Amino acid sequence: MTTLAFQDLYPDELGHCYGCGKNNDHGLQIKSFWEGKETVAHFEPRPEHTALPGYVYGGLIASLIDCHGTGSAAAAAYKANGRDMGSEPALRFVTANLNVDFLAPTPMGETLELRGKIKEIKEKKVIVEITVFAKGKACAKGSIVCVKMPASMMPS
Ligand SMILES: CCCCCCCCCCCCCC(=O)SCCNC(=O)CCNC(=O)[C@H](O)C(C)(C)COP(=O)(O)OP(=O)(O)OC[C@H]1O[C@@H](n2cnc3c(N)ncnc32)[C@H](O)[C@@H]1OP(=O)(O)O
């Protein structure tokens, strides 16, 4: 049995996001999964994601944290409600606040691992803490406040 990523369960009309949209051919298309109580995603930076030669661009790292965070928030909300992800009515979250600490230079040529922990969960708000590892070393840490997507943002 294949386990679908959180982002594979987003409806097509919400699949355009640069970081996580399954329908964005130029995007990062990150894929997040549960691993026990944590959420996990892997991403291999491409040459165009370079900051200084040999090191990953911080904006890419922030984008990965952003989209792993909003995906984790949606997954956690479904779980807290005892529902299958993707079932209606939809539980969708956007970024209200994103903070990133860059702890160490992140080397190119490695698969990055993002591990998320759900720190707080309310009906309208989920806070996720995410650590980004390269070769097992923590290179960045982010905290993201995710809030239920306003109806006005839903594509018509
Ligand atoms: C199957 C699943 C489908 C999923 C599909 C998903 C598609 C995703 C697509 C990919 C997306 C990828 C990601 C992207 O790129 S998403 C794109 C970037 N994000 C945006 O454009 C969002 C723009 N902002 C807004 O629309 C509003 O400001 C939002 C909706 C965020 C808040 O609106 P509003 O202010 O009216 O909310 P509230 O008053 O009801 O407050 C609710 C709670 O939130 C707390 N709060 C609010 N703001 C902040 C803040 N800045 N820092 C800390 N906390 C904040 C607030 O204190 C309260 O907490 P509490 O008092 O309850 O404790």
UniProtKB/TrEMBL annotation:
Its chief place of residence is: membrane
Gene3D superfamilies, per this entry? Hotdog Thioesterase
Question: What Enzyme Commission number(s) does the record list for this chain?
Answer: 3.1.2.2
Catalytic reaction(s) noted: hexadecanoyl-CoA + H2O = hexadecanoate + CoA + H(+); (5Z,8Z,11Z,14Z)-eicosatetraenoyl-CoA + H2O = (5Z,8Z,11Z,14Z)-eicosatetraenoate + CoA + H(+); decanoyl-CoA + H2O = decanoate + CoA + H(+); octanoyl-CoA + H2O = octanoate + CoA + H(+)
UniProt keyword Disulfide bond, yes or no: no
- Judged by the first EC level, this protein's enzyme class is hydrolase
Q: Which domain of life is it from?
A: Bacteria
What is the topology of this protein in the membrane according to its UniProt annotation? Answer: Peripheral membrane protein
Which InterPro entries does the annotation name?
A: HotDog_dom_sf, THEM4/THEM5_acyl-CoA_thioest, Thioestr_dom
Q: Which PANTHER family match?
A: ACYL-COENZYME A THIOESTERASE THEM4
**What is the official name of this protein in its record?**
Acyl-coenzyme A thioesterase THEM4
